[in-house]
Structure formats: structure tokens, C-alpha cells
Specification:
Blueprint: H1 2-28, H2 35-63, H3 73-96, H4 103-107, H5 110-176, H6 178-197, E1 204-205, H7 206-224, E2 228-233, E3 242-243, H8 247-258, E4 267-273, E5 277-283, H9 296-309, E6 314-317, E7 321-327
Parallel strand pairs: 2-4
Antiparallel strand pairs: 1-3, 4-5, 5-7, 6-7
Length: 329
Amino acid sequence: MKNRTVYIAIIAALAVFTIILYLIELLTSEPVFDITSFSLNYVVSIPFLLFGIIMNCGIAAVMNSRRARRLKVQARIVIEGISAILSAAVMVIIGNLPFIDDMAGYIISVPFVKSVAATTLINVFILAAVEFFIQTIINSRLQKENAVLQYRQLKSQINPHFLFNSLNVLVSLINKDREVAVRYTRELSSVYRYVLAQDSKDTVTVREEMEFIDNYTGILKTRFNDGLQFGYDIKPSDLSRSIPPMSLQLLIENAVKHNAVSPDRPLVINISSDGERLCVSNNINPRMSCPEGSGIGLDNLSKKYDILAGLDISVFRDADTFSVKLPLL
């Protein structure tokens, strides 16, 4: 697809160049069109076209520098227009040096003015193309920076939520069993050390995330005991693949939040992979009073994948099972 676009762009550029050169022929030559003369001019003009491209790229680069961009748009247009005319005059003079003895007389002649006008037309076309290309790069860079900012904001929405829930669990444990609370505090410290360490990363390996999940599930088991069970079936080759950090923690936390957890009806959470996706599934144990979900967690996770790779998560639900599949990066 990209090669096809490049070919179309080259053909379009040559077509436009041919049309412009034909206009030059009409402006600077006799009204009778001569295909031999036109072909010769076409071949001879290519080096000057390349020279014009280089010169106009330099003008566009200067006009898009930080200092120049502080100028008003009207001022930039005027400066670029004057630069296009001056560069056209320089190109015409250089092109005619080997053929004209009286250059001073030629400069004040009508053919010189016509040649400069025609060359200015080419310069304006080249400048417009270069400006479009530069603006495309700038916009792409701004979109990328904005995407990174959005991603950081999404991460900041998840981490405080996780800490808030964890502290609530700690408070309840302190009232029940202080020794367990001390152990839980140490485990929580290890878990949140990972959270802080991964805060500057966009992705982590599945191996790193699973090591974190082992600690995180240990905290949950301290609270729920036999009411919470975990199963793992991850291919060894998938451990080196990547996912956004804290993705599995979010899905496990959602499962615990929206389902009843008890030894009589244990909540079973399975994490597996198939080479393309990482699947987190759980059986559905409806709670007597389930907090109404806002969907922010899954929505944030979906936005993360869209920003990072232009991909999306897959959510499935039937009468007995809820599962989410994460693309492996």
C-alpha cells in the first residue's frame, strides 16, 4: 500500500512538472510548440528542478524554525513569496550564464521577467509541497506527544484507585488480625514498589507482569483465603511478549469487585495465552449487592491499546463466564 502511494505521488509530481514546463514553454518561446525543443528543455530542466527543490526545502526549513514561527502568518507568507521570487531570479541567471554574454542587459529584458515568473511558479509549487510535508510531520509529532500525554493520564487514573482499594483492605485487616496486617503491609509495599517502578514504562513483558501478579494475588488470598482461586496456562514463548503495565491487576480487581467471593462459591480466575492474546476469564458469581460498574477500567485499558498499537481488547460474556482478551505486543 505504501509503495503504491509513493508511485502515485511520483507520477503526479512528474505530471505537474510537465504541465508547468509546458506553461514555461508557452511563456518564454514562440507560440509554435516544438516537441524537440520541449523534450530538450525537459531533460535540461531536471537538474534545475532538483536545485530548486533543495533551495526551497532550505527556505521552508528556515521559515519553520522556532524563531520564524513566532512571526505572524501574513509576514511568513510575504517572506516566503519574496524568497521564492529571489531564488527564481538566481536560478534563471545561473541557468543562462553559459549562453548570454550581456547578463546585465538580459536581467532588464522581458524574457528574463517571463522566465523568473515561470520559475517562481515552480518555486511556489515546491514550497507548498514542502510546507505540507513539514506540517504533516509536525502534526504527527504533536499527535504522538498528545497520545503519550493521554496514556500517562490513563495510568494516573488507575494507580491511585489501586492504592485506595488496597488501603481499605489493610484497614479491615488491622481490625481483625494484626499479624496478618503486618504481613499484608509488607506484601503491599512490594506490590506498590512495582507500580512505581513501571510508572515510566509504556509496556512490560508478560513475565514481569506475572511476577507482579503473584504478589498481588497473595494480597488478595490473604483477604479471601479459599474463596479465591487462580489458574495459569501461559505459553513460555509468550512470556517475552509485552502488555501495558497493571493490565492484569485491573482485570483481576474487576473480577473481585463484581463477583461474590466465598469458600462455598469460589471465584476462579484463569490467565492463559494462545500466542496472539492473553486471556483473563472468571466464572460469574452474582453478588447480592453488586456496585454498579462505570466501565472506566475496561475503557481505559481499551484506550491504552489504541494509543500504543492501534489495537483493541476483546470482551466476552455469557451466562457463566466473563473473559477479556488482551493483544500481545
